[in-house]
Structures are given as C-alpha cells and as structure tokens.
Design goal:
The protein has a two-stranded antiparallel sheet with strand order 1-2. A two-stranded parallel ribbon has the order 3-4. The protein is mostly helical. The radius of gyration is 36 Å and the shape is elongated. Helix 1 runs antiparallel to helix 2 (about 65-120) and helix 4 runs antiparallel to helix 7. The longest helix is centred in the N-terminal third of the chain and has 53 residues, at about 65-120. The chain has seven helices and four strands.
C-alpha cells in the first residue's frame, strides 16, 4: 500500500489527499467591527476638533482678526463637541433600550414557558395560577396574545371533552325536555366542578384584542354550568359544545359557530348573537330575553319552552325550528324566514308577525358546514 509524503496510507488508484498546513488565524468578525468603530470614532473626533472649526470659521467669518481667531475656533470646537456628545448619548440610550428590550423579551419567554409547564401540574391551584399568569403575560406582550389564546383553548379542550351527540339524552316529549333542561346542566357550576377550566374560559372571555385575528377553537367541549357573563366570544368556534345551564348574560357571540350546541336551560339574557350559526342547536327552556338573534341561522334548532321576551329575530332563518311553548308576542320577527317544517307556538300567526314563508326547495342562508359531516 502506497504512502503519501506525510506517511499516510493511500489505497491504490485513489488520489493522495495532502493536508493543508494551518494558516494564520483569521481575525474574528466582531474584533474587526470593534476596531473599525474605534478608528471611525478617532477620525470623527479629529475632524470635529481640528478640521471642522477652521472650515466653519472660514465660511462664516473669513476676515476674523488673528487675535480673535483662536477664541472663535475654540468656541466652535466646544459647540461641536457638545453636539457630538449629545449624539453619542442618544446612541447609547438607543442601545441601552435595545438591550433592555431583549432582556424583557427573554423574561417573557421564561414566564411563558414556566406558566405552560404549570398547566400540567396535578394541583388545581397551580393550574389556576398558571392561567392567570398567562393572562398577565398577554397583557404585557400583545404579540403573545394569539399563542396564549391557543394554549388556553387547548387546555380547556384537553380536560373536558363533551359527550358525543349520539350519547346525549333524547327527550320523550315536551315535558321531558323541561326536565332534561333542569338536570342535564349538572348540580354544580363549572367553577366548582373544574375551577381551572372556568378560570381559563374567564380569561378567554375577557382577553385583549390580538394584533392579528385569533379564532377561539373551543368545539366539542363540556362547558356545562360555565359562567361567562359579558364575555367576548365573537367569531368563536363552539360547535357541538355542551353549554347547558351556562350563564352567558350580555355575552358577545356575534358570528360564532354554534352549530349543534346544547344550551338547554342556559341564560342568554341580552346576549348578542347577530349572524351566529345556531343550526340544530338545543335551546330547551333557555333564557333569551332581550337577546339579539337577527340574521341568525336557527334552522333545525329546538327552542321548546325558551323565554324570548324582547328578543330580536329579524332576518333569522327559522326553517325547521321548533318553537313549541315559546311566547313570540313580544319579539321582533320582521323578515325572518320559516317554512312548512317550522313548529310555531299554538295560536301564532306567522304572516301577521311579518315572517317570510319559504318554499321547501329554497336554499339555506349559508352553505353546509363541514362539521355536519363529522359528528
């Protein structure tokens, strides 16, 4: 076996790979940058103290007597040095601010990581503390509001999946619906059964606006007995959730996806449900006093026994809805759409109330949701 000039073994037919002796160590880029800054600073100071005063004096007062010339040069030099010191101070303040901002971002990252880890604690108190710690981080860092909302949504979903629709109780008749509305919500509110999840929902309901649109994905969750009065849940995805016996007084649910949601016995007094999707929703004996349901899709929804005094149903889609036992006398129904499958309260005159009766082949207000394909 052949050997190279350095004594290395070389296989026959293979080129000899000679090692290149190490050259001088290259100067680090940061060192070169620092040297350039120092040299530039020296040149700038020299220009300000030597060249600039004489040039400015020759432009401004070329005929200055020799006796006064030295004093004028010193005055100009002092003024320029003061200005240069001010610029240096501003530059130093900028870099100090940058350093503080980097340090602040690092602290926020550490706080965020610690809070997320605490969400997995076995102690409910620690989990609740982590939820409110994330709320404080969201207040301090607007850029983290979106990720924090996603973390809290995941936390709520992971710890409380709703019972599938196929396994929920099926009412025998109207009276049984009232009974289920009373007992299905549970004997205790969510704040007692699962205080950490109630805390997370409270934080999500009062979250500050994120720099970019952030949809709350809270579908298929068991939130029976949740307390969310005045909560901001606009555009939230809550399809197939169970919010029976929930307290949503004055909540903002505009454009929310509430397809197949259970709101049996829920309180939605003065809630804003404008353009919400409530298809096939269960609202047995729900309180909808003063609620805004205008332009809402209630096709196939069951409002048996619901209290709707003062509610607004303008332009709502009520095709296939069940309104048995409701009192629609004090509601606004102008422009609402019904059809032959809509079940009205006994003695109700749909035409006199300003309803539009659609034909059976009239298309729905909105296209079929993909949720209906994956119940």
């Amino acid at each position: 076996m052949a050997r190279s000039s350095r004594g290395q073994r070389v296989l026959p037919g293979h080129p000899v790979r000679e090692e290149i002796p190490p050259g001088p160590r290259r100067v680090g880029r940061s060192w070169v940058t620092g040297l350039a800054v120092v040299c530039g600073s020296v040149v700038l100071v020299a220009f300000v103290t030597v060249v600039a005063p004489r040039v400015l004096l020759s432009w401004d007062a070329p005929s200055t007597p020799a006796a006064d010339r030295a004093k004028a040069v010193n005055d100009i030099r002092g003024t320029l040095l003061q200005g240069l010191a001010g610029v240096a101070l501003l530059i130093g303040a900028y870099f100090t601010w940058r350093q503080l901002d980097v340090s602040r971002q690092g602290q926020i990252t550490q706080r965020f990581t610690a809070a997320v880890e605490q969400l997995g604690s076995a102690s409910p108190e620690v989990r609740i503390g982590a939820v409110f710690a994330l709320e404080r981080i969201a207040y301090d860092s607007p850029d983290d509001r979106g990720p924090i909302a996603e973390v809290l949504c995941s936390f709520v979903k992971r710890n409380g999946t709703a019972v599938p629709l196929s396994e929920r109780p099926v009412p025998r008749d109207e009276a049984h619906k009232g009974e289920l509305a009373r007992i299905h919500g549970g004997e205790e509110p969510l704040s007692v059964r699962s205080p950490d999840r109630q805390a997370a929902m409270t934080v999500l309901g009062r979250r500050a606006p994120a720099p970019r649109f952030q949809e709350l994905r809270l579908d298929r969750i068991d939130l029976r007995g949740v307390r969310l009065a005045f909560a901001d849940l606009a555009d939230a995805d809550l399809h197939y959730c169970d919010l029976s016996d929930a307290r949503l007084t004055s909540a903002d649910l505009r454009r929310a996806d509430l397809t197949g949601i259970w709101l049996a016995g829920a309180a939605l007094i003065n809630a804003n449900l404008y353009q919400a999707d409530l298809r096939t929703a269960v609202l047995w004996h729900a309180r909808l006093d003063g609620a805004d349901l205008s332009a809402t899709d209630l096709s196939g929804a069951d409002l048996t026994g619901a209290v709707v005094k003062g509610a607004r149903f303008e332009l709502a889609d009520l095709r296939g809805a069940d309104l048995t036992g409701t009192d629609l006398d004090a509601t606004t129904l102008t422009g609402a759409v019904g059809d032959a499958t809509t079940i009205w309260p006994t003695g109700f005159d749909a035409a006199a109330a300003g309803l539009v009766m659609a034909r059976s082949d009239t298309p729905p207000l909105r296209p079929q949701s993909s949720h209906e394909l994956s119940r």
